[in-house]
Every structure is written in C-alpha cells, then in structure tokens.
Specification:
InterPro entries: BphY/WalK/GraS-like (IPR050351), HATPase_C_sf (IPR036890), HATPase_dom (IPR003594), His_kinase_dom (IPR005467), HisK_dim/P_sf (IPR036097), PAS-like_dom_sf (IPR035965), Sig_transdc_His_kin-like_C (IPR004358). The protein is an alpha+beta fold. The chain is built from eleven helices and twelve strands. Strand 3 and strand 4 form a beta hairpin.
Length: 358
C-alpha cells in the first residue's frame, strides 16, 4: 500500500506547479523531486539529486538555524508540519512554504512533502501590514496633533465667552458657543475614529507568522520620531540583537505597542523619554515600553486591565481615556500565549512588560 501511495504521489508531482519531494533520511538523499521543485529553487533536477546540499547553501543566513530546527522537529514528531523559509539568491530574497510529513517504509524514514513559492504573497502581506500599522500610528499622531490646538481654541473661546457675557453682546456670544461646540465635536470625532479603528481591527482572529520583531519595532519608533511628537518627546529603541525572530501576528502586536506608546505620550511631560526595548531570552522574548512620566497611583493599578471606571483619568493635556484599550491589549497578548504586567512609581514613570514565547 505504501509503494502504491508513493507512486500516486510521484504522478501528482509530475503534474503539479508546486514542488514535490521524497527525502531518504538515512542516506540524506532525495529519491524523488519533480521539475517544479527544481524550478522553485532555480536549480536543475540532476544537480539536486547529485548534491542535495546545494539547496541548503541557498537558505538565507538568518534562517539556517531555523531550518535545522525544523528538520530536527520533523524527525522527532510524526505529525505533518508547515514551515516558511527564506532563500537568498544574488541578494534577492525568496519565500517558500514547506509542508512535510515523516513516513516510515520498510524500516526506512522518509520526509515527504511539497514546496510552494510564496514570495509575491508574502511581500503583498508585508506591504498591507505596513500600511495598516502606519495608518494606526498616523491616526494616533493626528489625534495628538489635533487635540492640543482644538483644546486651546476651546479654552480661548470659554475665556472670551465669560468676558462678553458681562458686555451682553448676544451675537458674539452665540458665535463663541458655536466655536466651543465645534471644538468639542471635533475632539470627540478624532478620538472616536481612533477607538473605532482599534476595536475593528482587533476583532479579527490572530494569524501568527515568523516575524523579525526588531525590524517591526524599529519601524514604529522611526515613525514617531519623524512625526511632530518627535519634537516634544524623546523616543528610544534598544534591541538586544540585530534580529529577533518569533511567531506572532505582527499587525495586531504592533497595535499593542502603538497603544502602549500612545498611553505613555499622554502621561509624559514635554521633553520626556519613551523607551521601547526588546530582549531575547532562552525560551521567550521580553518587550518593554517605559516612560519617565507621572506614573500610576496605587489606587488605579489594581483594575487597570479590567476596564474599571475608577482606573480612568485624563492625560496631562486633557486627553480622554476610554477604558477599553488596556483590556484589548491584554486580550491580544493572551492570544499570543504571552504575559503582560507593569511597574509604576508616581513621579518616576511606568514600564509595561510583555513576555512572548518563542
């Protein structure tokens, strides 16, 4: 029965645009590869059959350790596995997705599977995630940039309203009331837009993929530095390594980081510092977002992740706190099987920690 299945597998492979392969583990040789397998790797069938090591030479240097771990995992587990790896061809990255299963026939162990090139799909997904992440950051930056002048206009209108009330100029008073109302409505509009976008995008289930966390975090910090907020706050990013890979839903997780940074901005004075750090540990990655702001009083700390009304307070410039942000942050971290906690001291600052498994 096994021989018949292998024959059918090879017949399917000969007709498929995806790569099909059978690898004999003990001899470290391919016993079958189809033409598409060779085409995806940009090699000849005879070359691969004669020198299987050729395909490993093309694996991206940053993914070689990961590829070795995947190989060992396949041999240790009888279950089907799915992996994504990068190849490096003349400084050109190529993504491939591998579906592989171990199979024992007549005392021999084989790895049987398929290979699909996903470069275009992967690049498109990365591009979409970048657009979404920058959209969210832009909305937050826009909120901060708009709320301050609108708030100042509202205060100025209130002051003029009090002065004109003594004079009794009804026409001017009516105009000032209109200005105040418009400021209030636009302040609410800006914040409701942010809330709507954040809530809408977190309702989707997470889809974890192998991601370079350092690249993602550096891109977020770079965006804040280039915004107007970069003129009033110091944004610092400190990674423990040039690259840190782990499986996560990058778009969702960057929303978590963005929301934590946004909260730090609210409660950090002008020229204050907001720091993001990523540290690779043995079995996990620790990410922290810290500030030297006003800190969180003891009486507000207990229910911070539970959306309790008593934990809400306005920012230093009167920014409103709706209360669901921290609850959503914790939900996203939980979906990644991670942990989140914080340390805070009034007048010194606050640090949020997120630990994610590798």
């Amino acid at each position: 029965m096994s021989e018949l299945n292998c024959d059918v597998f090879c017949r399917l492979g000969d007709r498929s645009k995806d790569g099909y392969f059978i690898f004999k583990v003990r001899e470290k040789q391919f016993t079958y590869i189809n033409g598409s397998f060779a085409n995806i790797l940009e090699l000849q069938v005879d070359e691969i059959l004669a020198s299987p090591g050729l395909i490993f030479k093309d694996i991206h240097p940053e993914d070689r350790l990961h590829a070795h771990s995947c190989y060992i995992e396949c041999l240790d587990d009888d279950m089907e596995k799915k992996y994504e790896l990068r190849l490096l061809k003349d400084d050109r990255e190529q993504y491939i997705r591998i579906i592989v299963s171990p199979l024992k026939i007549a005392g021999e162990t084989y790895l049987i599977g398929t290979v699909e090139e996903t470069t275009v799909t992967r690049h498109n997904k990365i591009h979409i995630e970048q657009i979404n992440a920058r959209k969210n950051i832009t909305l937050e930056v826009l909120a901060h940039d708009l709320k301050e002048p609108l708030g100042m206009m509202r205060l100025a209108a209130s002051s003029l309203q009090e002065s004109l009330a003594r004079i009794g100029n009804e026409e001017m008073l009516s105009s000032l009331v209109f200005i105040k109302d418009m400021c209030e409505r636009n302040l609410l509009l800006v914040r409701s837009m942010i809330n709507h976008e954040f809530l809408k995008s977190t309702r989707v289930e997470i889809e974890k993929e192998r991601t370079d966390l350092v690249w993602e975090l550096r891109d977020v910090i770079r965006f804040y530095r280039r915004s107007n907020l970069g003129k009033t706050k110091n944004f610092v990013f400190t990674p423990s390594a040039d690259t840190i890979y782990l499986h996560l839903d990058s778009m969702k997780f960057m929303q978590v980081i963005n929301n934590l940074i946004s909260n730090s901005i609210k409660f950090t004075a002008e020229n204050g510092t907001i720091s993001v750090r990523a540290e690779e540990l043995k079995t996990s990655v620790l990410v922290s977002v810290s500030d030297d702001g006003i800190g969180i009083p003891d009486e507000l700390q207990k229910g911070l992740f539970d959306r309790l009304p008593g934990t809400l307070r306005p920012g230093l410039n009167g920014e409103e706190s709706e209360g669901f942000g921290m609850g959503i942050i914790k939900s996203i971290v939980d979906l990644h099987q991670g942990k989140i906690w914080f340390e805070s001291e009034v007048g010194v600052g606050t640090t949020f920690y997120i630990e994610l498994p590798k």
